[in-house]
Design goal:
The chain is mostly helical. 72% of the residues lie in helices and 0% in strands.
């Protein structure tokens, strides 16, 4: 993790300084009277996009859930292996000898 990431929360890969710059530019372009209206519309569009994405995801999971289950199990197993690797003295540890011919 980069040092800047540990000190600042990043939203949509945009730093706080970039968000402030965007806000100032929006304020200058749209003015203080129209900015709340535009922010509400942008929020509504974002909410609709999230709802559509959630609906699409649930539909795909319902349709292809049985076919994806083995892949999800494999992904979970790989993730747990990467999170908790075997110790060095374990037969499956990082320094094991390759099998002979």
């Amino acid at each position: 993790m980069r040092r800047s990431d540990s000190y600042h929360v990043r939203v949509f890969s945009v730093s706080p300084a970039e968000m402030l710059t965007i806000a100032v530019v929006a304020l200058l372009v749209f003015g203080p009277r129209r900015l709340p209206e535009i922010a509400r519309k942008a929020g509504a569009l974002l909410r609709q996009a999230r709802e559509a994405t959630a609906e699409l995801k649930s539909g795909l999971e319902a349709e292809y859930g049985d076919a994806l289950k083995p892949l999800q199990d494999l992904r979970r197993e790989i993730g747990s292996t990467l999170d908790d690797p075997p110790p060095a003295d374990h037969p499956d540890g990082p320094h094991r000898e390759p099998p002979g011919p």
